[in-house]
């Protein structure tokens, strides 16, 4: 018995149609007009580091995903605490939703997050094999545990680790060993996987992001690689990367990769060429998730220190 119906989500779909998310031995296909940035990345300047403790007795245990909505509010999931936190843009106030369990508003290892144009928050509740929808105040709205194939038959999520929303309101879900593209009514439009048509060798996927030029980046730590594809599911390139836990496109068309086990951030162009490498001068640096705010600043979750780092990107010729 499916828990959701198309009519349940119709009112959300209208607000999602123009939504956007709140991110070598490779094989490649030609893509036109991709461009290569002329400026180099010179350095990252640390603006601030926050955590592990915050007001209200909240403390990070294992921060695992982050998203920023259109109002600049920051949301962070914590799979250790089985919670989702909402912060003001300056990170000086915080709210909380969660607790271990399967009831609405509780979580089991929450991971990637996305925000829609109406400021709703979508949580990849991976251990519960579902996506939960909360409003900007972290109040529970809906649960989605299945999507629908071309015959309108429900299929259960396996283990959703990340979710993004494209400019047409479609959902992109990193679901264990596949990428699902779903319309606003959760009908399957496209699957990228080892068994689906196309040139994809996908293992365990951890994250997904969509660029301003509609390229899809996939972090696949299961195979130690990053994959770039088109919105239509055409394979562009894949290249080897150490433990790509999180991927995020910047506004210049460069792809940033958080390599937690390797203790570094790396930046690539769309041809898979390394453009920049960074690691903090602190023991055990383990970046687990990255995203960008509207000003282009980089937000990094660091799981061993249980902190949030915010950087300004210094560029030059």
**Which class of secondary structure composition applies to the elements?**
mainly beta
Number of strands: 26
CATH superfamily: TolB, C-terminal domain
In the predicted model, the low-confidence regions spanning at least 5 consecutive residues are 1-33
Any idea what the shape is? globular
Give the CA-CA distance, first to last residue. 58 Å
Q: Which class in CATH terms?
A: Mainly Beta
Q: If helices are DSSP runs of H or I spanning 4 or more residues, what is the number of helices?
A: 1
CATH architecture designation? 6 Propeller
Order of helices and strands: HEEEEEEEEEEEEEEEEEEEEEEEEEE
How would you write the strand order of the largest sheet? Answer: 1-26-25-24
Tell me roughly what share of residues is in helical segments. Answer: under 10%
Largest sheet: 4 strands, antiparallel
Mean pLDDT: 89
Strand content: over 45%
Assign the CATH topology.
Neuraminidase
Write up what this structure looks like:
With 317 residues, the protein is mainly beta. It has one domain (6-22, 27-316): Neuraminidase (6 Propeller), CATH 2.120.10.30. Helix content is 3%, strand content 46%. The protein has one helix spanning 6-16, and strands spanning 40-50, 63-68, 74-78, 83-87, 94-98, 110-115, 121-125, 130-134, 140-144, 146-148, 154-156, 160-165, 171-175, 178-182, 188-193, 207-210, 215-220, 225-230, 235-240, 244-249, 255-259, 264-268, 274-278, 287-292, 298-302, 307-316. The strands form 7 sheets. It has a 4-stranded antiparallel sheet with strand order 1-26-25-24, with no helix packed on it. A 4-stranded antiparallel sheet has the order 2-3-4-5, with no helix packed on it. The protein has a 4-stranded antiparallel sheet with strand order 6-7-8-9, with no helix packed on it. A hairpin with a 5-residue loop joins β12 and β13 (171-175). The longest helix has 11 residues, at 6-16. Residues 1-33 have low confidence and may be disordered.
């Amino acid at each position: 018995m499916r828990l959701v119906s198309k009519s349940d989500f119709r009112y959300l779909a209208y607000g999602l149609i123009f939504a956007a998310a709140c991110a070598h031995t490779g094989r490649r296909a030609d893509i036109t007009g991709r461009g290569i940035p002329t400026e180099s990345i010179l350095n990252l300047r640390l603006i601030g580091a926050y955590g592990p403790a915050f007001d209200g007795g909240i403390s990070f245990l294992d921060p695992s995903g982050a998203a920023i909505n259109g109002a600049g509010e920051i949301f962070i999931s914590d799979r250790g605490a089985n919670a989702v936190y909402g912060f003001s843009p300056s990170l000086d106030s915080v709210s909380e939703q969660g607790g271990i369990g399967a009831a609405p508003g509780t979580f089991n290892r929450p991971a990637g997050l996305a925000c829609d144009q109406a400021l709703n928050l979508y949580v990849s509740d991976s251990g519960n094999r579902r996506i939960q929808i909360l409003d900007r105040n972290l109040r529970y709205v809906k649960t989605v545990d299945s999507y629908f194939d071309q015959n309108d038959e429900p299929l259960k999520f396996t283990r959703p680790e990340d979710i993004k929303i494209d400019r047409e309101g479609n959902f992109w879900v990193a679901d264990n060993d596949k990428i699902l593209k779903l319309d606003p009514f959760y009908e399957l439009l496209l699957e990228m996987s080892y068994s689906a048509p196309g040139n994809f060798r996908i293992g365990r996927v951890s994250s997904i992001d969509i660029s301003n030029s509609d390229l899809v980046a996939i972090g696949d730590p299961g195979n130690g690689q990053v994959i770039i594809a088109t919105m239509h599911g055409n394979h562009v390139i894949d290249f080897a990367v150490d433990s790509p836990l999180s991927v995020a496109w910047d506004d210049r068309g460069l792809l940033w990769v958080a390599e937690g086990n390797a203790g570094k951030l790396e930046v690539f162009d769309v041809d898979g060429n390394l453009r920049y490498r960074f690691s903090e001068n602190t023991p055990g640096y383990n970046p687990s998730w990255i995203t960008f705010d509207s000003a282009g600043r980089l937000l990094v979750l660091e799981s061993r220190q249980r902190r949030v780092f915010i950087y300004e990107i210094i560029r030059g010729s």
